[in-house]
Amino acid sequence: RAVALILVLCVSGMRAETARYSVPEEAERGSFVANIAKDLGLTGEELLARQARVVPEGEKQYLQLNQHTGDLVVREQMDREELCGQSEPCLVRFEVLLQSPLQSFRAEVRLTDINDHAPVFLNKEIVLKISESTVPGTRFLLESAHDPDVGNNSLQHYSISSNEYFLVYTRRRSDGGRYAELVLDRALDREQQAEVAFSITGVDGGNPPRSGTALIRVVVLDINDNSPVFARSLYKVSILENSSQDTLVVVVSASDLDSGINGEIVYSIVQNSEENFETFKINPKTGQIRLKKPLDYEEKKNYEIDVQATDGGGLSTHCKVEVQVKDVNDNAPEVIITSLTSTLSEAALPNTVVALFNVRDRDSGDNGRTTCELTGEQPFRITLLAADAYALVTSETLDREQVEEYNVTVRARDEGSPALSASKSLLVRLLDVNDNAPTFTQAIYTMVMSENEPVGRSLGRLSATDPDAGENARVRYSLVPPPTGTLATASLVSVDAESGTVRTLRPLDYEKVRAFEVTVHAADGGSPPLSAQAVLHIVVRDENDNAPVLLHPAPESSAAGELVPRWAPSGYLVAKVVAVDADAGQNAWLSYELAKATEPGLFRVGLHSGEVRTARAVTERDAARQRLIVLVRDRGQPSRSATATLAVALVDDFSDAFHQLGHDPAGGQQPQVAEEEMLTTYLIASLVCVSSLFLLSVLVLTANTLCKARVRAELPPPSPSCYADGGFASDDVGVGSTGTLSPAYRYEMCLTSGSGRSEFQFLRPILP
Questions:
Q1: In this structure, is the dihedral angle defined by the CA atoms of residues 132, 137, 142 and 146, taken in order, positive or negative?
Q2: Least packed by Cβ within 10 Å: which of 118, 180, 592, 710?
Q3: Are 727 and 739 in contact (CB under 8 A)?
Q4: Helix (H, G, I), strand (E, B) or coil at 142
Q5: How many whole angstroms separate alpha carbon 125 and alpha carbon 99?
Q6: What does the alpha-carbon distance between residue 153 and residue 172 come to, in Å, rounded to a whole number?
Q7: Do residues 160 and 213 lie in contact, with contact meaning Cβ atoms separated by under 8 Å?
Q8: pLDDT tens by residue, 56-107
């Protein structure tokens, strides 16, 4: 750190010298800057007793004073480029204020630059068009790389990658910036090489150095005899800072002796800085340079612009334009309050500090020189602490019974022509009252609780702050009773008076209460207490605690009967299962599936519709009675389900519907036991019929065989030329190793069960 002489300022003395320190930018929080107590010749106990504090010049507090040790440390990281841009030096000014008696001294911390930025080219690819007739030694101005650092950490030199034709030189501008000039070292030949590409690198002087790179593409053009020539190589102009946008700055002019397209000139600004690009624009045909935005003398006083003129053949030349910004009195003084005691005891002694403030004017010269005064007759006066730093102090004893508060107006005026002024009003209260109510961090709090939440479960925390101190800042929470006749929300949740934690008082059912609101009251401990209110919105989250409920078929019925004709095609609507779920969201999304069926391949169920349809056409082989169990499932976690039972009868027509479903039209539905006995009877009868038919078939076949054997015995023996030994075997039943063909027959037997009728049907024989 660099420490200068420090002279403690007494209010009566009116003298001060500025103490100067330094610290690197981006220094970590808590980094040591200086020991203020040592420089003032005070001990840590004296600093604490005199309530020493740091008052910044601006609104943000970057530095902090430890009253116990006297160390001045970094409170917030400071970025030199953000605070000062490329202005040097970059200073953070502040004051150290001591009470009893009032003393103050001014100090400033210089932020030293670190190499935290690398040079950056605005365009990653630079295209140059150069005629093949260009003479070696010709110079071409290149776009500059931008490095926000200053001093040695800023851009220092340029270099290019190895190539046969060009060299690069680093030049310095009047403002200290460096730019690159490309020099043709060897004549170009378009027929030999139509384009030359190489890279340019800008390197700063940091340790370690940083660099940025761009690609240069040189397009070699056919011979163009003459390059453009500017009327002047340097244009110097001045312009007032209050000039409006599009104000004409200067007109540059170049000429070219060529004719036709080679004599047409296009003007452009070489992008040597981002600031120039954002501030100026040029008409490519006329060469008029105009403002893209208003200027500010306080931000930048000089600009240096590189202008390029390029003809139609690609040849170009450059000139410089230096723009000087003239200051005008366009900034009114600013009164910046750095410390304010809004409440003051009526027993305060004269010279008690009420407020500290700075007066700043961004203009220069007389335009930036200011004076300060109070308006009206009041028991206060302004004391000069240092240059542009003032204190508002009491000038006499105060009487609260006469005046309870003062509205003090401070007026600052500069010495410009015409003079500009600004005022600041300060409200000084003579009674210390609890004037700060608690403030909730949110006007509306939203919390979520699951239904059936256990009692005492924490839902969240409310927070309200009070800027007062002591008991005036202690906040207690409570619920505001709801109006009579509304939901008793106070019995549903509670709020902890000290912490603001919201807890459940009883489980809730989402199907009955989906959301509710309560008003929360926060009061401080002042006298009288101040309070604030916020709305607490409780949203009940649904849980999957309800299973689907069947509407059709009715759950109390054992099975719903449905009739399906045997001619029903695929997709025939048999029935529709309808169910509802009292839950919400995906807990109420229902899906249907066939859980069990007499013939699973005959029917299908719509996943979301619940429609029961035939999956294929009904055939005679399908059982007449079908029993289906449909599973209805929701999508909750875990899921809940219900089942519906359908009894389906396959009928030839609807005249025997009651018979197929086991209904008696006169007597109603038969008991389940009767149905089972009837089915058993049908099965026994069917078995007897089948057995009888089988025995009858055997007898017929035997008789037929005997008859045929007798006929063959009476016939003459077969001729050898007709049949060979073992000459034929039937595909079905052989009745001998020799003999004629034995005709075989195949019969189809169809048997239905559960229909109440059984048949044994002979079809026509199928000969092999």
A1: positive
A2: 710
A3: no
A4: coil
A5: 62
A6: 15
A7: no
A8: 877 788 888 888 888 899 988 888 888 888 788 888 888 888 877 667 778 8
- Say how many CA atoms lie within 13 Å of 648 toward its Cβ: 30
Q: Name the pLDDT band for 742 (thresholds 50, 70, 90).
A: very low
Judged against a pLDDT cut of 50, whether residue 464 lies above it is answered with: yes
CA angle 467, 469, 474 (to 5 degrees): 85
3-state DSSP helix/strand/coil % of the chain, to nearest 5: 10, 40, 50
Distance, in Å, from the CA atom of 309 to the CA atom of 316, rounded to the nearest integer, reads 5
Give the pLDDT band of residue 559 (cuts 50, 70, 90): low
Residue 514's identity, in one-letter code, is R
User: Hey, which bits of 222-264 come out as E strands?
Assistant: 229-230, 234-240, 248-251, 254-255
CB 597 within 8 A of CB 622: no
Of 181, 187, 183, give the one whose Cα is nearest residue 137: 183
Is it the case that residue 4 has pLDDT exceeding 80? Answer: no
Question: Which residues, including other chains, have CB under 8 Å from residue 1's CB and lie 6 or more apart?
Answer: 21, 22, 23, 33, 34
C-alpha to C-alpha distance for 238 and 323, rounded to whole angstroms: 5
Q: Report the distance separating Cα 575 and Cα 565, nearest Å.
A: 13
Q: Cα 251 to the chain's mean position, in Å?
A: 48
What tens digit of pLDDT does each residue of 689-734 get? 888 888 888 899 888 888 887 776 765 554 444 334 444 333 443 3
- Residue recorded with tokens 């008859």: 707
Domains and CATH numbers, the chain: 19-112 (2.60.40.60), 120-221 (2.60.40.60), 229-326 (2.60.40.60), 334-430 (2.60.40.60), 439-541 (2.60.40.60), 549-651 (2.60.40.60)
User: Are the C-beta atoms of residues 660 and 651 closer than 8 Å to each other?
Assistant: yes
